[in-house]
Amino acid sequence: MSQNIQIGTRKRSRANMNNSTTTGPADNVSANKVFLDSFEDTRTNNLLDEMFARQNSFLSDNLRNSLDLNQAENSHLPRQHQRQHQHQHQLFLDNENAIELDDEPRTTNTTINNNTINNNNNNNNNNSSRVDEDADDDIIFIKEQPIQFSSPLILPSSSSNNAANTYITTPKKFKKQRTISLPQLPLSKLSYQSNYFSVPDQNNAIVPRVTQTENELLHLTGSCAKTLEGNKAVNLTIAHSTSPFYNPPLQLEPPPQPLPPQSTLKRQIGSSLRKFKSNSSSESASSSKSNFKTDKDGHYVYQENDVFGSGGRFIVKDLLGQGTFGKVLKCIDNKYEPNYNNGQNYVAVKVIRAVDRYREAAKTELRILQTILENDPQGQFQCLLLRECFDYKNHICLVTDLYGKSIYDFMCSNGIARFPGSHIQAIARQLIRSVCFLHDLGIIHTDLKPENILICDETHIAQNLPTKTVQSLSKRRREASKGKHKILNNPEVKIIDFGSAIFHYEYHPPVISTRHYRAPEIVLGLGWSFPCDIWSIACVLVELVIGESLYPIHENLEHMAMMQRINGTPFPTDIIDKMFYKSKHKLGNSPSDLNSTVIKHFDKKSLTLQWPEKNKRGETVTTEKSMKRVLQSCDRLDIYISKILKLDYGDSISINWNLPAEKNWSLINSKMVWKKQIHSSSAAATDRLDKETFLFWYWFIDLLRKMFEFDPTKRITAKDALDHEWFNLGILDDGIATYNNTQG
Ligand SMILES: Nc1ncnc2c1ncn2[C@@H]1O[C@H](COP(=O)(O)OP(=O)(O)OP(=O)(O)O)[C@@H](O)[C@H]1O
């Protein structure tokens, strides 16, 4: 599918810069360039060569097996790069600079001064200022520098080849020095420009979007629109989620939007859709030819080659999905020539159940899709694009662009469900940016999950997995994957299913989201707003790393116990206090089972969760299975993800989110050096980790931690998440290699 990929062409702003990080007008750049700020193509290619060379050992197995890149790349590298390749194992990095150590005399030295390496020791806080004198030196590049022999530092020997004392010098810092970091996919650098959109107000009039304000109130469910703090008549809490509206403080919930009469439904689609309406959607013209049938539950009965729509416009070709609301069909749209734009005469049509309840719900979905379309007619913000809507035999039909399978289905059909880091970053960027766009429009998605994230381009490379690995797969996965590890060529995604999405000023049902992706404020009945989407995205991102659901739970108590375990901390007592207060004063519209499944498990005095559950005699009644799921199958998030990363990088990677990045890295590094000294090189070879790769994962986990903040008013917003340090970092892995290989 042709998609516009927006790539910020301005210099990257630093994570600690505030709104200025939103880039200016973005250019459309062809998707075959790894993001390299504003450097031209040839340099891009050279840089990529260098990066591949430098990381050769890191990826040697995978790249050799699947892509045969190393030999090919090195054969045409410039001489100094080949030399670098030969000696890449001798890279050492210190806080300020890194230099390549050579075992033969050299006249030049490659300085690698990664902006990420400059993170100071306070970098647990992403807003901390950097130790960096030059505000402009964050471009990623290698630059050959003459060696500056300042006082050499003697380091412990660091490789078997370098048994003797090794000198590491501190080269003089060059102004405007260009630095190198590992590459990112273009999708990881998609820019976002706020203050741009217009949104409908409560009377459906389009008003210009006001500047984002932090003076937003956290919505409560039901008829109460007070903030959590407001419930207690204390100072109003500022919810950091942004939205385009100034919410009238302490007002009762605005009346629900009147649902449009059916006759005006078509008008609701807006002017941008009119061009699609040349074939008027009157059903009568085609109904005689159609076999279109509806069952007793109001569901369309799927039959291949069914024809429906005005003039027999749509031919049913496949059933893409079936949900509560209806069926989603892959159809040929006869409005277009058969080979229109490489098969873009195919569309997805969501045929809503012919039941009043679902028809009404579809109208809400329609209003959301309409707002999205009006503000992003090109679909640059990764949201499902509505092409048309019509009513057919009492079924509302939503015609949208057709995308590939969902991330969930892709994972199920993959021998290794985990995604490469570069793809996780690209997907994260798209999701967060898309949600930032939605939140700016006042829309909360409420049901973000892998099933609702579709892949645009399903093409991939497939590597054969070792027999032993294949045998360890479940029968279902073995059959679905055919024993192969699939890596997408391009991890572009789209968010779908706006059936549960709402405008922030509308009625909030007490329970939203699919259980595994449900934020704590929903479970605790505190009321919810924009931050719930951030929690859901965080759950999705972890799922991409570990290859399975982070919260494989079905009930509240275990869910809460697991949340505490994963965050490594109990729920903050102030939010539990609010939960009790809300319940006591019957504020808001709580889940019906709140008392019996949530509140009763908290101790009123200590405001702590009583888990494992005990009976009156003090005996543990929590089942062994449940204990195992909470205590053994998961762990504090940094530890849990580190365990998974060991599969790729060896035993030494051990991320501790309580340590500053530099300190964490030096502990890991000294462990690796020690291992190399004690053991043979083969033992050390299991550690395929360098500092930049470590930093990539460290900052990823840091972002997750902020997204998993229990208190929704303190949880990172989508806008702030886009400015997080992690999005300045790259990684060289199979995902980058595949992308590069296929885009060339
Ligand atoms: N535009 C599309 N292109 C390709 N597949 C799609 C598209 N839209 C939906 N699907 C498929 O149909 C499935 C159901 O779509 P959707 O989630 O919108 O329906 P739903 O009735 O709201 O489902 P649920 O009840 O699960 O929320 C999706 O998971 C996806 O696999």
Gist?
By secondary structure, the chain is α+β, with helices and mostly antiparallel strands.
Radius of gyration: 27 Å
Question: Beta-strand level of the residues, as a percent range?
Answer: 5-15%
Quote the distance from N terminus to C terminus: 18 Å
Q: In one word, what is the shape?
A: globular
Structural class: alpha+beta
Largest sheet: 6 strands, antiparallel
Q: Widest sheet: strand order?
A: 13-14-15-16-18-17
User: How many beta-strand elements?
Assistant: 24
Low-confidence stretches: 1-44, 55-180, 208-288
In DSSP terms (H or I, runs of 4 or more residues), the helix count works out at 24
Helix content: 25-40%
Say which molecules are bound, naming each kind only once: adenosine-5'-triphosphate
What integer is the average pLDDT?
71
